Amino acid sequence: MSVERGAVLADHADRGALAALAAARGWTRTAAEPAGFAEPEREVWDAGGGTRVVYAESPVRGTRFVCVTGPDAGSAEEAFAAVAAVLPTVPVEEILAGLLAEPAPAPRELIRGLDRLATAARANGERRPEDPRYRRVVERLAAHPERQVRRALLFAVEELSAVRPELADPILARRDEETELAELVRTFAETVRARS
């Protein structure tokens, strides 16, 4: 069973530093895929011993992340620590704190935070321990007055619910109240139902 470890990259992270690290450690680049319409740009290195390092950038919002996959926790963590030493990351705690800040951030920052939160879950690829802040984010933003924030929440929770299925509940509970995005919520409900 492989182990994944990943993180969202800070805005000032220098992608060239990852390429330099890979060269210094003798990692072999095995793929360099340009971004597609809905597919991220990806660069992949074989770090040896069954460990793989992936750099990716979302084509939609530009969120960048790294993901390290290894045959065991030790090898994944060792490679991830090397990557994190040269590329600054955004901790999930910081993302959650931003989404729960008072006063609430501007809609644009909320949408960016939701994308980062979903990306962090995707980069780690496994269920994390229960954390009530995730549910507070969903409950708070499901009632946000800005349609685009609620729309971004639907897409983020669709991804997050793969590892935190309980996050769909607050959205489904507001199904009758959400009139502006009714069709999208219906599709979301079908997706969640099909997954369970």
From TrEMBL:
<protein>
    <submittedName>
        <fullName>Uncharacterized protein</fullName>
    </submittedName>
</protein>
